[in-house]
Structures are given as structure tokens and as C-alpha cells.
Amino acid sequence: MPFSLWLSLAAICAMGAMSPGPSLALVLRHTLGGGRLPGVTASLFHALGVGFYALLTVLGLGALMARFPLLFQLVTWGGAAYLAWLGIKALRAGRAGSIQANAVLTTSPQAAREGVLVALSNPKLILFFVALLSQFVSPEMSVAAKAIIVLTAMIIDGVWYVLVALLLSHSRVLPWLQQRAHWINRATGVMLIGLALRVVLGPLA
């Protein structure tokens, strides 16, 4: 995979991870309720769930593209519509109160379990990956290139939430995130709508 193409993938994955939502609230809750270790644990296990969905998506898109090109096109257009809807929703969210976390007592095993479940119980995540990864998957793509895509999505998700957990365990990052949630929402919305247009125009090269 060309480095410039990988940078596009990494940037989109980063914006998706940074977008305020239930995953961020999960990490905040476990960090505030149990400290650094439960917060980091929730982050890492959430990343495993994300990696699992990314793997399923890459394998499924490759099969669709090779065997049913028309169906693949319909799936990607449906994904583009979904991305555009997410982008509009993010732009309209403003100062949405999604970055909230109650400091309830929590443990590392509980954080690990909930980290995976929050990722795997979110069907919207795989729809997001279908639209996103359709721009990077090709029928002739090697196993190594597919592994890079999956690892990129998983590692960026894990690194972002681990950083959030580490920062929260030392300082008052939550108020800072809450005050800037609307800017995160706006940046995410613009990028999602731009990606939806890119999907309609054709794969990235």
C-alpha cells in the first residue's frame, strides 16, 4: 500500500476514533471509576473489537468485489449514504452531551468485558467500515496489505483511547473535551461527508 494512501486511511480512522460517542464515554467511565488500569484495559479490549470488525469487513469486501461486483457497488453506495447521514448528524450535534461519564466504581475485568462488548454490539461500526474500507480494498490486494488495513484501524483506536485514559488519570481532561466536543463533531462531520463524496466518485488511488 502506498504511504500516501495509508495516510488517508490513518487520518480517517483517527477522526472516527476521536469522534465523541459511546466508546469514549466507556473509557471515561472506567478511568474515572477505577483509575488508569481499568481505563487502559477498556481501551485495549475495545480496540480488539474494532480490529475484529475491520478484519470481517476487509475479508467480506474482497469476496464481494471479486465475485459480485454489482452487489459490491450497491453496498458501497449504501455505505456512502450512511457516512453522509453520520456527517450531517455530527454537524447538527453541536455541543452534544455524549462526552459524559459517571465516576462509578469499576474493575479491570469489567472494563475488559465492556470494552469488547461496546465495540461488538455496535452494528453501525461495521457499516462504517464497509463504507470506509471499500476505498482501500481491491481484489488483487495481498494478505499483508489487508493486515496493514486491519492493524491500522485497531492500533489507532487503541492508541487514542489509551491516551485519553492516561491523560484522565493525571489531569482534568474531561472538561477540556466537553468544551471542545462541538469542534470535534464539526471536524468529524466535514470529513465524513467528504468521504461519502469520495465513495461515490470512486476508490482512492
From TrEMBL:
<dbReference type="Pfam" id="PF01810">
    <property type="entry name" value="LysE"/>
</dbReference>
<keyword id="KW-1133">Transmembrane helix</keyword>
<dbReference type="InterPro" id="IPR001123">
    <property type="entry name" value="LeuE-type"/>
</dbReference>
<keyword id="KW-0472">Membrane</keyword>
<keyword id="KW-1003">Cell membrane</keyword>
<feature type="transmembrane region" description="Helical">
    <location>
        <begin position="143"/>
        <end position="163"/>
    </location>
</feature>
<dbReference type="GO" id="GO:0015171">
    <property type="term" value="F:amino acid transmembrane transporter activity"/>
</dbReference>
<feature type="transmembrane region" description="Helical">
    <location>
        <begin position="115"/>
        <end position="136"/>
    </location>
</feature>
<dbReference type="GO" id="GO:0005886">
    <property type="term" value="C:plasma membrane"/>
</dbReference>
<keyword id="KW-0812">Transmembrane</keyword>
<feature type="transmembrane region" description="Helical">
    <location>
        <begin position="41"/>
        <end position="63"/>
    </location>
</feature>
<protein>
    <submittedName>
        <fullName>LysE family transporter</fullName>
    </submittedName>
</protein>
<feature type="transmembrane region" description="Helical">
    <location>
        <begin position="70"/>
        <end position="88"/>
    </location>
</feature>
<feature type="transmembrane region" description="Helical">
    <location>
        <begin position="183"/>
        <end position="201"/>
    </location>
</feature>
